[in-house]
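note to self: dont lose this again. the chain is below, predicted strucutre after it. 292 aa total, dont forget to put it in the shared folder this time
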Amino acid sequence: MQRSLPLQQGRLSDAQIQQYWDDGFLFPIRVMDEDTAKDYRRQLEAMEDIWLDNGLPRPLNSYKRVNAHLVMPFAFEIGQHPAMLDVVEGILGPDVMIYSVEFFIKEASSPHIVTMHQDLTYWGLGETSGMVTAWLALSPATPQSGCMDFVKGSHKQPIQPHHDSFDENNLLSRGQEIAVDVADEDKTPIEIHPGQISLHHGLTIHGSGPNVSDDRRIAVVVRYVRPDVQQIVGGKDYATLVRGTDAHQNFEPVTRPDRLFDPEDMKRYDQIASEQAKAKMAGAAKQAEIYR
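---
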């Protein structure tokens, strides 16, 4: 296991911040102890046991994969975890908003992959540097379990052409894949363990292979934005201020849910999903759920 980067009173050093901007990613960074991460895993799996067949309007996986923080209090809690925000401030500055919280899960011995892509291709936010993704491991993310691979320096390129395969083994809804070949020697495997995060830029080319291990690969993916970022493809967009101030008002605010799958929160979830799909599914050859 690679040792966590040393923080300065919980914050990134100037050298670490520069490394992020040079490479387009930074890892591994410890933001919580292993026991805390395992407790979040227990909360997730308890929720799965209770709600899998409990009459939700959408498949449970849709709520895990898209805006989980709107209907799951513990997902919102992870997104506003103080140690996460202390680290993210080093990249975005003092004003930080949660854009989304998602659970990315590859089951044990699963063929599912994520093809090489750039996140910002489909978010409708342009080629902004005002978004950073924090990827928190709740179980070991290793080459065996299908950890992410990043292409160093690729965030310095504009959005590249992508194509949609709609492959059933691709965890991305459209099977979106960058339309250039990425050599294996250009990939950096991002091995992190429970309680550690990686950070990556929205233009960094990345993907991941199958999970051939005997445990689930579970991650919480939190996307943070600066308040000056704005939606330029779809209609309204949504985010929650968790640090600093919002002088721009580019996003409709959302609040933390009080309990799992509250009916009012579910209505809001559907409204937001409909609005955001205008950007995320724009130009798709066929309609699909944003994620599977």
